[in-house]
Specification:
Blueprint: E1 4-8, H1 11-33, E2 36-40, H2 44-53, H3 58-61, E3 67-71, E4 73-75, H4 85-92, H5 114-129, E5 136-140, E6 164-169, E7 174-179, H6 181-185, E8 189-194, H7 200-207, E9 224-230, H8 231-234
Parallel strand pairs: 1-9, 2-3, 2-5, 5-8, 8-9
Antiparallel strand pairs: 4-7, 6-7
Helix pairs in contact: 1-2
Length: about 240
């Protein structure tokens, strides 16, 4: 399924549009099903979104007691480590909103090795959500075409029988845990954030068909699918 592209003037306008979309998605889910399940992403653009959500009037526009936060991927570091997506999201948003702590579901990266963390997180998702899909999955896009921690040429790309999986990423010398394609693709809405001139080459390669088989190109969302880009990323 091809993504609907939303091209905004600059990074700040992109963040404002994404914040409006997040709030609208959450309010619609809560009105319809009484709960909003979202998977957060790491990265600078999602961080801007989280910071915006933690300001007025957005904080007051959501019933945070009905929001459940998960994470699309995580580095296997302590939750206090500067490389932790959870730490970033906490400092940007979670610590500043009235969400019950039991609604924040971080990956238990301090509990054992990466494969064990992946299994525990799959169980947590099943326990909280049952068979419900995510209402929204947020993703960044790496310059190599990766989304979440689904990196090129890794076995994680082919895992379909579990909600999450673990992998070792050679170039970053780090263990990761990531949601798998079936989990992401089942979401009611998927948004990929792409900002900055540094992403313009990969955007051009993908949109012109110059390259194929990148992790982002293997996304096949069953629900709504958006690319939120700023003009710098979409420039070519």
């Amino acid at each position: 399924m091809k993504a609907e592209q939303k091209i905004l003037a600059d990074a700040q306008t992109l963040i404002e549009a994404a914040t409006e979309q997040f709030v609208a998605s959450a309010r619609a889910a809560i009105a319809k099903r009484g709960v909003f399940y979202v998977a957060l992403a790491g990265g600078s653009t999602p961080k801007g979104l989280y910071q915006k959500l933690a300001t007025s009037p957005y904080t007051e526009q959501l019933d945070w007691s009905r929001v459940h936060l998960f994470f699309g991927d995580e580095r296997c570091v302590l939750p206090t480590h500067n490389d932790s997506n959870f730490k970033m999201a906490s400092e940007a948003m979670i610590d500043h909103i009235s969400i019950p702590q039991e609604n924040v579901h971080r990956m238990p990266t301090e509990e054992g090795v990466a494969p064990d963390v992946a299994i525990k997180y799959s169980r947590k998702m099943q326990e909280v959500m049952g068979e419900q899909p995510f209402d929204l999955v947020l993703l960044g896009l790496g310059p190599d075409g990766h989304i979440a921690s689904l990196f090129p040429d890794t076995a994680a790309l082919d895992v379909t029988e579990t909600k999450t999986t673990s992998l070792y990423v050679d170039k970053f010398d780090s263990w990761r845990v990531t949601m798998t394609y079936p989990t992401i693709n089942a979401a009611r809405q998927v948004i990929v954030f792409i900002a900055g001139e540094a992403k313009s080459d990969i955007v051009k390669d993908i949109t012109t068909g110059a390259v194929e088989g990148l992790p982002v190109q293997r996304l096949a969302p069953q629900g709504e699918y958006y690319w939120f880009m700023d003009a710098a990323a979409a420039g070519q």
